[in-house]
Amino acid sequence: MSNSYLDTMPNTDGFFGKFGGAFLPPQLETPFTQIKEAYEQLKNSPKFIEELKYVRKHFQGRPTPITFAKNLTAFCGGAKIYLKREDLNHTGSHKLNHCMAEVILAKHLGKKKVIAETGAGQHGVALATAAAYFGLECEIHMGEVDIKKEHPNVVRMKILGAKVVPATHGLKTLKEAVDSAFESYLKDTDNAIYCIGSVVGPHPFPMMVRDFQSIISLEAKEQFFEHENALPDNVVACVGGGSNAMGIFAHFIEEKEVNLYGVEPMGKGENIGEHSASLTYGSEGIMHGFNSIMLKDDKGEPAPVHSIGSGIDYPSVGPEHAYLNSIQRTQIGHCNDDEAIDAFYKLSQLEGIIPALESAHAIGFAIKLAKTLSQDKTILISLSGRGDKDIDFVVENYPVPNAKF
Hints:
405 residues, six-stranded mixed sheet, globular, Rossmann fold, 2 domains, four-stranded parallel sheet
């Protein structure tokens, strides 16, 4: 029996320390128990493992490479910057890593339909892709604001055969999309499965999504040695719910000499409703079926949030992130909207890689970090997605710089 971190966390009830668990209405207790039992059975099944390996290699295009960002490194004048290229994963982000596996799980349970939320649309596109590949129905809930902002991904979901349901209440963004998706799932638990899009939600999803996303760090650890014959000094990823971050952190957690930075979206200010920095400004609370650190209003309810990155404007954070931060294994980085836009253009014009706005937060923080480090240090960034979905929004609101930096 292994005593490694990934094998022992969370505990059997889904807790990472005091964070996590499954706080569910009675009608969802049985479906979630079935999902947990099915995952425990499947994850050690040679047939499941082989099917997932085949899909990742021959459909997704894994392994994704690590790229040395030589021009960005020179611009920063400090540590060497490397990018783990999840933007090259099929559908353009890390999300397919868990979506293909979740749909295999749905088929194992005899489900006919998958339901999910999406913010930036990347999880929605990935799940619609997986549903098409495996022949299941797909229903995606998305905030009305995000539907307008992320129009290219909405079109992609519809082309792939998904039904896109707008969330029209509250702020009409990611939290409301989760609310809407849960309501839909409650009405059809016999035929459908709710495929949560991050390391959030009731147990077993924070564990399950982390496990599926850990392929990122499994690959990256070996690939980085090819470049530097050493582990990275620093690993950086954006954090909303935190699936890409847990993916790239997973196999480095026990490597104590590696600094792990989860970058929170500082938005446009420090007041409630101006940012989505849950770990920085939040406190312990239960939302969407799990206990974590969340942003609250003066009534103790989930606070309004903002980020230019639609996939990271969520008022809580995955429970494992809350735990790792509480034991000081991870550190919090910050990047605001303007810094993310600056990073978006810098990476595009210096490296020929257009990043997703979510990923641009990790780039923005890494630029600041690199300038504080000596040239013998290294930074590995999770480039969690490509920016095709964001280009219309960005150029309409932030003029393209006249010249390279």
